[in-house]
Amino acid sequence: MTNAPSDFIVTHEHRRFAEFCDACRRSRYIGLCYGAAGVGKTVSARCYANAALLETWLSSHSMLIPDGAAVPDRATVFYTPQVVNTPRHIEHGIETQRHQLRMLAVEAWLENQRHLYQVRKRDEALLRPRRLQSPTRSNGNVIQIYEAAARPGTDISKTYAEMRATMPDPTDLIIIDEADRLKTASLEQVRDIFDHSHLGIVLIGMPGLEKRLSRYPQLYSRVGFVHAFRPLSAAQVRDLLQQKWVPSGVALPEEGVADAEALAAIIRVTGGNFRLLHRLLTQVARIMEINALQSVTSEVVEAARESLVIGTI
Questions:
Q1: Could you say which of 76, 97, 232, 261 is the most buried, measured as most Cβ atoms within 10 Å of its Cβ?
Q2: What average pLDDT does the segment 133-148 reach?
Q3: Is 267:238 a contact under the CB 8 Å cutoff?
Q4: Residue 70 half-sphere exposure, CB side, CA atoms within 13 Å?
Q5: How does DSSP assign 141-190, residue by residue?
Q6: Domains of the chain from N-terminus onward
Q7: HSE value, Cβ hemisphere, 13 Å, CA-based, for 72
Q8: Long-range pairs for 110-119 at CB < 8 Å and ≥24 separation?
C-alpha cells in the first residue's frame, strides 16, 4: 500500500526505509530499524503500510472502500504494542489486523464486482432483443417472440460468502513500531509469529534496540537486515523548504522561507529532526499571524525557537 497523506513528503530517508522494508518482505527476514525520536520513523512506516486506508475503512459506517484507494494484493500490518503488553496481546493484535486486511481485500473484490455488474447492465441496455424462431398459427399468422439480450448474472451474495471464506491472507510484512516496549516474553511471541507465518517482520525502535536484541540469540539469529533511520541532512531540509513544504494546517507566506538567514537558522535549530521541524514551522506561523508579518526572517525563527521545549535530538 502506497497511498501517502496529502502533506507527506517522500524524502531520501523514506526511500531508504521503503527499500529496507521491501528487502525484508522479499527475503522473509526480521529487520531492525532504529533512529532518534522525531526523525520520522513512525510517519514513514505508516505511509509505507498505508495504515490510514485501513483506519478509514474501519471507521466508515458504510464499510465501502474509500474513493481512489488502492488495495494491493500484498499488504503490510502496522502494529503498535500497548505500553503494558503480554504475548497474548501481541498475538491477538497482529492476528486482528491481518484478519481486517483480509476483509478489506474481500470488500475491494466486492466493489469491483459491483462495478463490473453496472458496466454490464449499461452495455446490455444498448443491445437489441434477440428474435427467436416463432411458431405459425393455423390461420397463417406468425407469432413474434423476442428474448432479452441480457445474460443471467452470477449470484453475488453467494460468491461473496465464498470469497469471505476462501480469500487468502494478503499480509506478507508486519511492522511493529515502538518495539522497545516488548519484554522477553513478548519478543518470544514475535519470534513464534515469524517462525509460523513465514512473513517478513520489521521492528522499529530507538537507538540501542539492536544491541538489546543481540542478547536474545534465538531472535537475533533471525535478523537479516539492520537499518539506521537518520535525521535529514542540511541539504535535505533546504530542499524541503525550497519546495515550500509546510505541516498540514500551517500557513506561511506564498514565497515560503525565502530568506537565506532564516533558512540557515531553521536548519541549525532543528538539526534535521522532522518532528522539531514540524513544531518550529507551526510556531513560526503563529508568531507571524500574531504580529501581522509578511516574511519569515531569522528573528522570527529565533523567537519561535525560544517558545519551544527542545530536548536532546
A1: 76
A2: 61
A3: yes
A4: 10
A5: PBPP-EE-SPPPPP-HHHHHHHHHHHPPP-EEEEEES-GGG--HHHHHHH
A6: 12-108+167-228 (3.40.50.300), 121-163 (no CATH), 234-306 (1.10.8.60)
A7: 14
A8: 110/156, 110/160, 110/163, 111/64, 111/65, 113/156, 113/159, 113/160, 114/156, 117/153, 117/156
The residues near 58 (Cβ < 8 Å, ≥ 6 apart) are: 100
Cell readout for 57 is 475503512
33 beta partners: 204, 227
Report the amino acid identity of residue 54. Answer: L
Q: Which residues partner with 75 through β-bridges? A: 171
Q: Degrees (nearest 5) of the Cα angle 73, 74, 78? A: 135
- Indicate if the pLDDT at residue 84 is higher than 80: yes
Look at residue 8 and tell me whether its pLDDT is greater than 50.
yes
Query: In terms of C-beta density within 10 A (0-12 exposed, 13-18 middle, 19 or more buried), how is residue 298 classed?
Result: middle
Q: How confident is the model at residue 143 (pLDDT cuts 50, 70, 90)?
A: low
| Amino acid present at 311 | G
Dihedral, CA of residue 175, residue 177, residue 179 and residue 185, to nearest 10: -60
Does the pTM surpass 0.85? The reply is no
| Inter-CA distances, 274 with 2, 36, 39, Å | 20, 10, 5
Closest C-alpha among 74, 77, 126, 128 to residue 105: 74
Q: Would you say the C-alpha torsion 292, 294, 299, 303 has a positive or negative sign?
A: positive
| 21 vs 302: CA distance, rounded Å | 38
The cell numbers describing 53, all together, are: 486506508
